[in-house]
């Protein structure tokens, strides 16, 4: 693969690393802010989502290193997703878990958009890298749907 193609792939992968750093910060903040023990299931879900993103970030970083790049260590440049996640903090001042679930769903929408953008790039991906990105996107889609289901259930029971 040509050097400029490697740089293009590492740039795309670094964007996905930043997306996962956003997810980690957002879900960790959401989990930390839930104090009510009756919402333990939602808190556990948020913690699992953060852990999943740590794993995704690690796999993406390994791929970047294999391609000769340096993995990103910052959140998204624009910070839009991160700011949306950080709104979770104010959400919990009113103990509104439903609003937190809505914000997390919004964050998942942004994450899915990042993965969709990455996968729409038209070039020959290094062996195994596109499969890695597709697998993570699929997993994030499942997370999105799980958050949406919790949100719907929470809206009907609270």
Automatic annotation (TrEMBL):
Q: What single Pfam family name could you report for this chain, choosing any that match?
A: DUF2383
Q: Which residues form the DUF2383 domain?
A: 9-120
What InterPro entries is this protein classified in? Answer: CHP02284 (IPR011971), DUF2383 (IPR019052), Ferritin-like (IPR012347), Ferritin-like_SF (IPR009078), UCP029477 (IPR016920)
* Protein name listed in UniProt: PA2169 family four-helix-bundle protein
Name the source organism. Answer: Ohtaekwangia kribbensis
Q: What is the lineage of its organism?
A: Bacteria, Pseudomonadati, Bacteroidota, Cytophagia, Cytophagales
